């Protein structure tokens, strides 16, 4: 039987107003994904609203944009996972062995 983990990411793309962009700190997802993948977990991504998970702009620059984050961004199938996340209503928590919460902002 396969072990399953659900990653919870953010949908929030800005702080208090549109002048302060934010989002998922990508390497917080990519590092965990690689570890869980190495241990044979089947993985799913969920966000509070479903749909797009924006990326934190500061996380996409040196030194934060590490090898795992760059590889994820270079893989269209991986980026599609962040463009089309599932909402909590679309998954059953009983189907998963673990929940991993990445960094990000939950809402305003």
What does this structure look like?
The chain has 3 helices and 3 strands. The chain is globular. Helix content is 26%, strand content 15%. The protein has a 3-stranded parallel β-sheet, covered by helices on one side. With 108 residues, it is an alpha/beta fold.
Keywords:
3 helices, alpha/beta, three-stranded parallel beta sheet, 108 residues, globular
Instruction: Give start-end ranges of low-pLDDT stretches.
Output: none
Oligomer: single chain
Characterize the largest beta sheet: strand count, sense, and whether it forms a barrel. 3 strands, parallel
Intertermini distance: 40 Å
List the secondary-structure elements in sequence, H or E.
Answer: EHEHHE
- Radius of gyration, CA atoms, in whole angstroms: 14 Å
| Lateral strand order in the biggest sheet | 2-1-3
Shape field? globular
Instruction: Classify the beta-strand content into a percent band.
Output: 5-15%
Number of helices: 3
Q: Please give the number of β-strands.
A: 3
Q: Approximately how much helix is present in the residues?
A: 25-40%
- Mean pLDDT level: 90
Give the topology, please.
Elements: E1 3-8, H1 26-38, E2 41-46, H2 67-73, H3 76-83, E3 98-101
Parallel strand pairs: 1-2, 1-3
């Amino acid at each position: 039987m396969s072990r399953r983990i659900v990653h919870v990411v953010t949908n929030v793309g800005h702080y208090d107003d549109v002048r302060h962009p934010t989002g998922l700190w990508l390497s917080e997802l990519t590092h965990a994904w690689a570890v869980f993948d190495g241990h044979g977990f089947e993985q799913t991504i969920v966000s509070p609203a479903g749909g797009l998970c924006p990326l934190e702009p500061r996380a996409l620059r040196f030194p934060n944009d590490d090898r795992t984050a760059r590889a994820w961004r270079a893989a269209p199938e991986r980026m599609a996972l962040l463009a089309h996340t599932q909402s909590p209503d679309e998954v059953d928590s009983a189907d998963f062995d673990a929940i991993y919460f990445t960094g990000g902002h939950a809402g305003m």
